[in-house]
């Protein structure tokens, strides 16, 4: 796949995936179109050699794999489906001062200031009782801008440009309407009706998030950048998805995109849960074969990396400061916040060199804290050799992040090269 087609597909995937549920659904559709067979965790699996499969958990995490059976040296790619956002509280409606607002929680390490004055919509999953009194769940996406978080005018806050802070309880409630007749359940039923679901008896629960309706777009004099919400980490999800769809079924390849990375991965559908381990045991039910597979395979943990910010260069270690559009980033941390080691780095570098793909190194400043990824979690839980890589990004965890228009395609080339 050439870079232009790759990037155009990426923009479409970003726009169509406002929540982990939507991202997982879109990846499942892609796998279906690429000839993967859907599995259900609650069913008995009867895997056939030479076939390709995928399985989802919670509708927000997904695994796809080839099954050559005799080959055990898997190339695995790990990413995460979730991004920091504003999630609705269970009883979200607040009516005061002549408006209807929604109470929200900040999910993950959210950069709050960029959420002000944006055209916001809502998407997520709803569980309800249908006309036959059967419990159902479905995805909704309002798409239309329905809310905004207005900034406080500088006339009322003369320190706004000096020391602006945001109170997560009181300052970031999105405003929906001046019509105080608003009813939340009726709003949800209206959205379900838009999906063709009529006569809903009861709305029981929902997991809904706000998102910016501005589309993903090329930015820069020569389209140098891709600007979008949720680049962390749908950028890696898309790259891993396209990579496994591009390899033959006789090559041992696995892709996993897990939920809840931004809040620690400790859930049934997070990397700290059993999803990957359960799947691998069902692929290799003989313990000796399972161990042979884990010790001969490689996990590439793909997550975004902090590119050196041209206005804040001192936030980086000078010798380990990645630049946008200058190559894939290998992430290293002496305290195992990243899982890269010399052997996994060497294997990745060898493949990149054969494809003439540029690489960079990232090590956080020694006087600053270091984030982490699913890499160390997966390495610890599965016992698989792992490397942490990423694509250089600005404004990570903002409502609109920025990455290079070259880098993701380079990662795609290396991932398919490792699988060849």
TrEMBL record:
It holds the Pfam family Peptidase_M18. It is an enzyme of class 3 (hydrolase). One of its GO terms (molecular function) is zinc ion binding. Keywords: Aminopeptidase, Hydrolase, Metal-binding, Metalloprotease, Protease, Zinc. GO terms for cellular component: cytoplasm. The keyword Cell cycle does not apply. One of its GO terms (biological process) is proteolysis. Its EC number is 3.4.11.-. Its cofactor is Zn(2+). InterPro entries: Peptidase_M18, Peptidase_M18_dom2. Belongs to the peptidase M18 family. This is M18 family aminopeptidase.
